[in-house]
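Table 4 source record.
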Amino acid sequence: MSRTEGRAEGAGPFTTRLSWSPADGGTAVWESRTARKRGRLTVRAEGELAPRPRRADGVSIGRLRRLNTVAALAFTVGGALFALGAGVAQFGSGTATGAWIYLAGGLFFNTGGYASLLQAINAPRPQTGAASLTGRPWAWWSYEPYRIDWLSAFVLFAGTLVFGVNLLSSLLQGLSLQQVNRLIWAPDMIGCILFLISGHLALVEVCHGRPGVRARELSWWIVAVNQFGSVLFLVSALAAFTRPATGSLVNEDIANWGTLTGALCFSVGGILQLFERP
């Protein structure tokens, strides 16, 4: 059996929403984020006005719930630690102390990024010819760049790893100005750009095409708050460039406050994500 009267929505090569008529009649609608985060699709039988949710199997639902909790808590704690580190740096309690706090926060961001990737890898998939989701064998890794959810999560995870280079390098002593910009500032910038790319892909996924405002959807708020945090991180990174002529940052206050407010955005996004579960 195969799907009939199928209609795909998304952007470019990515499909974010798929509608089809299953073999037993009616209309089934699969959305990539809903399937990945909540483990369900919707089905409207012939003659019914409102669609009904249809969940994946219990094993898949349990996996998604656990991974969502790990990712949400990791970003909440990681964001709080980044905000604390920025506060320590701003109010002069010692750069070494702030660097270690940042490193601890970075480990939580790594955990949240990988948990998000695992959620995309192990999300249930729509079953051909039927109005249901099929669970997948557990996997620690996959390569699926043609899927926007996988690509967004992978770029996010890569960004957290690049931030790790920045955070580890900040613990080194006796670096020259050129080394500071190359080992600390450059990875910071690259990580911020990867976060922005991931956030843009997530917005495209939520909006099923061109990014817009969907104020009634929890998923849109989560993505939008995180993307705003990524913008603040980028502003902070730009202000943290060390000018070779003077040996000082472009603007230390903007660098610290940008990190602090951006990190709080990720904490808020993590708290909201706790409610986006099966």
